[in-house]
Amino acid sequence: MNFWKSITTILKSPKEDKWTAEKDAVYFHEDSYRQVEICPFENLNYLKHQNNEIGQFSEKHSDGIGFTEIYERNENPISIYDKNIPFVKVDELLTELGFEKITKVYEGYGSTSWRCENTFAYRMNRAIIFVYPEGKFVKDFWIDCFRFEQKKEIIEKLKNGLLKIGTEFNLVLNDWNLTMVFDLKNESEIEKYLCEDL
Q: At 15, is the secondary structure helix, strand, or coil?
């Protein structure tokens, strides 16, 4: 057997790239975990302050290509889990809104991926909502691939979905990449986010 092929076989985990062969599975890069986070409204002022701090830190430590230091952010004062939002209610709401529920969720980096137990994805076109419940309640709640959608009908459905979630559970969306927070009870704010009118 070829030496390099042998080494690759030894190093390759049986879980690697499994998700790519499964049509009913989704994947997220580990760096995108909670990068666009759905949070309790009570954190609004804290998130605005954190976003401002991160913005200033980024400017100070940018070298033009990347960053010379890493900003470590703390957990939000009030977590989504503190709100006791029943997972069953979120599940019902998202499926009623037309999101496709996917139970096979993989996380990873590079060519390596692994199954995320007890994590659910709700997909509409490219956009995905991820929900991780602990017991009966939602523990983590984040989205991926919502920006840069081109189809107007999909944008409208995504907007209505985020508005319904925000209104039902009094939530905001914080995009840590953009360092911006959006009230999910405010239709115009959601539309600005989805349409890149920032």
A: coil
Residue 140 lies in a domain: yes
Residue 69 lies in a domain: yes
Contact between residue 138 and residue 178 where contact means Cβ atoms under 8 Å apart:
no
What residues make up the domain containing 23?
A: 14-194
Q: Per-residue DSSP letters for 32-82? A: GTTTEEEEEGGGHHHHHHHHHHHHHHHHHHB-SSSBSS---PPPPSS-TGG
For residue 7, is it within any domain? no
Residue 73 near residue 114 (C-beta atoms within 8 A):
no
CA 37, distance to chain mean position in Å, is 6
Q: Is residue 35 part of a domain?
A: yes
Number of domain units in the chain: 1
Which amino acid appears at position 69 of this protein?
E
Please list, in sequence order, all residues whose beta carbon lies within 8 angstroms of the beta carbon of residue 196, skipping any fewer than 6 positions away: 147, 148
Higher pLDDT, 158 or 21: 158
Tokens of 45: 């002022």
C-alpha pair distances (Å), 93 with each of 80, 87, 151, 188: 17, 10, 22, 21
pLDDT in tens, 120-143: 999 999 889 999 999 999 999 999
